[in-house]
Design brief:
Blueprint lengths: L1 H33 L12 E3 L4 E9 L2 E8 L5 E9 L6 E3 L7 E2 L4 E3 L3 E2 L10 E12 L6 E10 L2
Antiparallel strand pairs: 1-10, 2-3, 3-7, 3-8, 4-5, 4-6, 4-9, 9-10
């Protein structure tokens, strides 16, 4: 009879000790989740990546419109003809009007005019990734080239 009591007491102590540990773990996960510290999005850095020919230096998404800062690394001037924006599960948005970024001199940097991304249903305050396809040609050439990349930015 005595051994049975000791086994029961050991079992109760075991359950009590580990239930406090499990409760502490659940409480910790709840606090981290409440303050959004478990969100992967929080730790993804904002960036704009394209190929080596036309480099995307910076991107901004404000009020459903995107603006890119593009740099020319070719030894000659280039002309931007079109920028197409893509997002998974959505139709691409081609933009033929690139504003001041139309011609980028050798070694120069230009900003595109803001292009609408309303069809992508971007959520304000979240980091969103948008695909970018830049169609350009070298100065004096009729041959077009494509540079593909992506940009991740916080929607403001």
């Amino acid at each position: 009879m005595r051994t049975r009591k000791k086994k029961g007491q050991a079992a109760i102590e075991f359950l009590t000790t580990y239930s406090w540990a499990i409760l502490a773990i659940l409480l910790s996960i709840g606090v981290l989740s409440y303050f959004d510290l478990l969100s992967v999005e929080r730790y993804v850095r904002e960036n704009c990546e394209t190929g080596n020919q036309v480099i995307c230096r910076e991107s901004q998404i404000v009020d459903g419109r995107i603006r890119l800062s593009l740099a020319n690394t070719y030894p000659v001037d280039i002309e931007i003809h079109r920028i197409t924006y893509t997002k998974e599960g959505r139709d691409p948005i081609p933009q033929n009007d690139v504003g001041d970024a139309g011609v980028i001199p050798r070694g120069g940097v230009r900003e595109t005019q803001p292009h609408s991304l309303q069809d992508f249903d971007l959520q304000e305050g979240r980091k969103e990734t948008v695909g970018v396809i830049i169609t350009f040609s070298r100065a004096g050439s009729a041959r077009h080239y494509n540079v593909t990349g992506s940009t991740t930015a916080t929607v403001r």
